[in-house]
Inverse folding.
């Protein structure tokens, strides 16, 4: 499957739904895990560009994220990837999103400034 990196430079993100474990089987309640057995969570984000266009994204991320609804965040390492599946006898397809982590903007800004201070 091909991962497509997402350019975050022209976008701002706000958490619109709290992190929740991703369920792979609604009947059994089975929760999705990664190769290492860690739980995969889904975080709902709104992505807005400078022209005011807003899209809603569900982003998969390993481990519970320390973000709350309404918080301005950055999806670190955000990638998009196409998917297709046959569900209920019908072929479905779309684009899904995954990130390494979802970080509050304040945490990203402070770590960036401390990194630049180390360089100087």
């Amino acid at each position: 499957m091909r991962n497509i990196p997402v350019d975050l430079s022209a976008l701002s993100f706000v958490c619109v739904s709290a992190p929740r474990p991703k369920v792979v089987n609604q009947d059994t309640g089975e929760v999705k895990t990664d190769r290492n057995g860690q739980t995969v969570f889904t975080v709902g984000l709104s992505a807005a560009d400078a022209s005011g266009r807003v899209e809603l994204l569900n982003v998969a991320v390993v481990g519970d994220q320390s973000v709350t609804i309404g918080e301005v965040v950055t999806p670190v390492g955000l990638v998009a990837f196409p998917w297709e599946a046959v569900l209920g006898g019908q072929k479905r397809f779309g684009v899904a999103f995954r990130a390494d982590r979802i970080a509050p903007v304040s945490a990203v800004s402070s770590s960036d400034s401390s990194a630049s201070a180390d360089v100087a």
